[in-house]
Amino acid sequence: MEIEKRHWLATTLVPYWRTYARVMLAALFINIIALASPLFTMNVYDRVLPNKAFPTLWVLTTGISLAYLFDFLLKTARASLIDYAGRKADLRLSQLIFDKILNSTLASRPMSTGEYANRVTQYEFVREFFTSNTIGILIDSLFVVIFLVVIYMIADWLVIIPAVAFVLSVVIGLVAQAQIGKRMATAANEASRRQSLLVETISTIETLKSLRAEATMLRRWQELTKYSSRTSEDIKHISSNAINMTMLLQQMVSVLIVVAGTYEFADGKIAMGAIVATVMLASRAGAPLGQIAMTLARFRQATMSLRILDKIMEQPDDRPSTVGFVNRQIRSGGFSFQNVSFQYPGSDQAVINQLSFTVAPGEKVGIIGRIGSGKTTLGRLLDGLFQPTNGRVLIDGVDIRQYHMAEVRAAVAVAGQSSDLFSGTVKENLLLGRADASDEELLAVSRMTGVEEFVSVHPRGFDMPVGERGANLSNGQKQALTIARLLLTRPKIVFLDEPSGAMDLASERHMINKLTDAFGPETTLLVATHRYSMLELVDRLIVIDRGKIVADGPKNAVIEAMQRKAV
């Protein structure tokens, strides 16, 4: 049975409903106090001036001064409440989204990193909507009816003028946001493409320079920027037109009220002070309407961004989400692939095809094969990064999907070809997988893998900065550091993917000598490699071709069979 979950945005905002309720209450009193100024002016014109009632003037002045003081305090409190709720919601929202990025399955992610990053940044629009004065404008718009009721009580039918203006302002805003909405969708797509190109360019800048491809990438960027600028210009043009039309309506409301009020005054149906008060009330009612077009556009942007974020939050999770889940532990390093087939998302070709084999706990196995034969994919399936399209992967005789992925990755350690490192020091990168490791353990794995050799000659030792993605290290040093980080986690199953691919012969020989003693009889080892020298670490050899096993057996027997076949 699936656990029923509330919408992720509701989970973020519901804890602060009391704060937003206080904002609404403050807005109610602020809008009621806003009636004080027109009523004060009306009474001065209609009662104080004709009768020269100066004591009444000072009583009214004292009253409105106190009202303005409360208005100031309430507005300050409302702004603080919106900021507080927005800040707290922002922290929860960003944490929720980043947690989803870390724990969503790789199969559900888009292929383009730049596109994915652009989707994630959409939360900025949602956050801005709940933390800016947009909330205040929307709330104030709801209280326009209060001003219309008071205008009706003061000026009778003259209320029709601001009421019609209110309806027209809303219509203008809705039409504008409908036109803007279409272009915002286009703008979001263009921004995604630009972000994708930017990330791709930055990550491959060395290759681009070597190929002298700067001009080609610049043309692509200029083309995307041209379309993006055109769309942005259209959005600004529509927004400014809507704002200008709304402002024109507000100005005409004041003029029409004065004109109509003059005729009513001439007929003795309305006092001069009532005309002035009506103009002031209409202006106050129209204040939020002047921004209604932009407010609705922001609402449309936030809604569209929310839909984009929904797609991210709906991605399947690595973590179990069922009530009946039983947390199992992996106790030994035995595993098996049973009729496993797999193809990557978006691909129409299977990388692994009906593959079956079993590895006993503590067994040392080498995997060789041509490029693209599926060796790397085996490690990804074993680590739970992807799930088989067909078949099963078993660890300790249990389907891998019955384990919590954290348990799988604690037991299975994969050192990939990419040797991914993170900004920081050598020590920080080593401790990423196991923060509680002692200095003795850190030194031991560093000696085994050759990390000690380049760290010992650096003035800062293990505090040596590795740079972004290990830019300060050679490929061989990055590979050594990656394997050392893996060994520090003390896994039950180790998968080394081309562990010496970027090393020279001397470094490779040093690592082989050290790793021979690094893996005890209880550790299961798989080595995917093109180098026969690395096969010294294994006793059994599996040959894969086009996702299928073509040979499997004792290392020497398989090598002899391959040599005879080659002859």
UniProtKB/TrEMBL annotation:
<keyword id="KW-0547">Nucleotide-binding</keyword>
<feature type="transmembrane region" description="Helical">
    <location>
        <begin position="129"/>
        <end position="151"/>
    </location>
</feature>
<dbReference type="InterPro" id="IPR003439">
    <property type="entry name" value="ABC_transporter-like_ATP-bd"/>
</dbReference>
<feature type="transmembrane region" description="Helical">
    <location>
        <begin position="53"/>
        <end position="74"/>
    </location>
</feature>
<dbReference type="GO" id="GO:0015421">
    <property type="term" value="F:ABC-type oligopeptide transporter activity"/>
</dbReference>
<keyword id="KW-1003">Cell membrane</keyword>
<dbReference type="InterPro" id="IPR003593">
    <property type="entry name" value="AAA+_ATPase"/>
</dbReference>
<feature type="transmembrane region" description="Helical">
    <location>
        <begin position="20"/>
        <end position="41"/>
    </location>
</feature>
<dbReference type="GO" id="GO:0005886">
    <property type="term" value="C:plasma membrane"/>
</dbReference>
<keyword id="KW-0812">Transmembrane</keyword>
<feature type="domain" description="ABC transporter">
    <location>
        <begin position="335"/>
        <end position="567"/>
    </location>
</feature>
<dbReference type="Pfam" id="PF00664">
    <property type="entry name" value="ABC_membrane"/>
</dbReference>
<dbReference type="InterPro" id="IPR011527">
    <property type="entry name" value="ABC1_TM_dom"/>
</dbReference>
<feature type="transmembrane region" description="Helical">
    <location>
        <begin position="157"/>
        <end position="176"/>
    </location>
</feature>
<protein>
    <submittedName>
        <fullName>Type I secretion system ATPase</fullName>
    </submittedName>
</protein>
<dbReference type="GO" id="GO:0005524">
    <property type="term" value="F:ATP binding"/>
</dbReference>
<dbReference type="GO" id="GO:0016887">
    <property type="term" value="F:ATP hydrolysis activity"/>
</dbReference>
<dbReference type="InterPro" id="IPR036640">
    <property type="entry name" value="ABC1_TM_sf"/>
</dbReference>
<dbReference type="InterPro" id="IPR027417">
    <property type="entry name" value="P-loop_NTPase"/>
</dbReference>
<dbReference type="Pfam" id="PF00005">
    <property type="entry name" value="ABC_tran"/>
</dbReference>
<feature type="domain" description="ABC transmembrane type-1">
    <location>
        <begin position="23"/>
        <end position="301"/>
    </location>
</feature>
<keyword id="KW-0813">Transport</keyword>
<keyword id="KW-0067">ATP-binding</keyword>
<dbReference type="InterPro" id="IPR039421">
    <property type="entry name" value="Type_1_exporter"/>
</dbReference>
<keyword id="KW-0472">Membrane</keyword>
<dbReference type="InterPro" id="IPR017750">
    <property type="entry name" value="ATPase_T1SS"/>
</dbReference>
<keyword id="KW-1133">Transmembrane helix</keyword>
